Amino acid sequence: MNIVVIGAQWGDEGKGKIVDYLAEDADLIVRFSGGANAGHTIVSNGETYKLHLIPSGIVYPDKQVVLGTGMVIDPEALFSELETIEKQGINWSNRIRISDRAHIVMPAYKQLDREMDSKRRNPIGTTGRGIGVAYSMKANRDGIRIGDLSDSNFLDTLSKEERSFLDPYMDKLVSMSVNMTYLLEKHKGGKVLFEGAQGILLDLDVGTYPFVSSGYSASAGAALGGGIGPTDIDKVLGVFKAYSTRVGNGPFPSEFLAERDGNLEDVIREIGREYGVTTGRPRRCGYLDLVALRYACLTNSITSLVMTHIDVYDDMDEIKVCTDYEIDGEITREFPSTAAKLNRAKPVLKTFKGWKTDLSSIKEYDKLPQEAKTYIQYIEEYTSTPAGIISVGYERKQTMMRIPLWTE
Ligand code: GDP
Ligand code: IMO
Ligand code: MG
Question: Which residues does 323 contact at the CB level (< 8 Å), separation at least 6?
Answer without folding.
Answer: 290, 291, 333, 348, 349, 350, 382
